[in-house]
Design brief:
Blueprint lengths: L17 E4 L5 E6 L6 H10 L29
Antiparallel strand pairs: 1-2
Amino acid sequence: MIEGTEVAEKFTKIYASSFYFDDAGVAVWPAQVVNYTNKTQFLFRIEKGVLDINDQGVNSFFQPNQYRVPFRNMIYI
């Protein structure tokens, strides 16, 4: 839904649920689901600036002055 709005271009990365589509363009299976467990991972990715979901750097230690977006500056919807 966010990707279909005018403000989507203002974001560097959007983490949300997505679907796998078949050759006819029909959604057939969830490709990615953001649930209560992994939402924390995505919030840490935003905070640390480690946006690639395959980058294990999200588990690295960062000094607070190295945070890209501190939690106190985030709004989670």
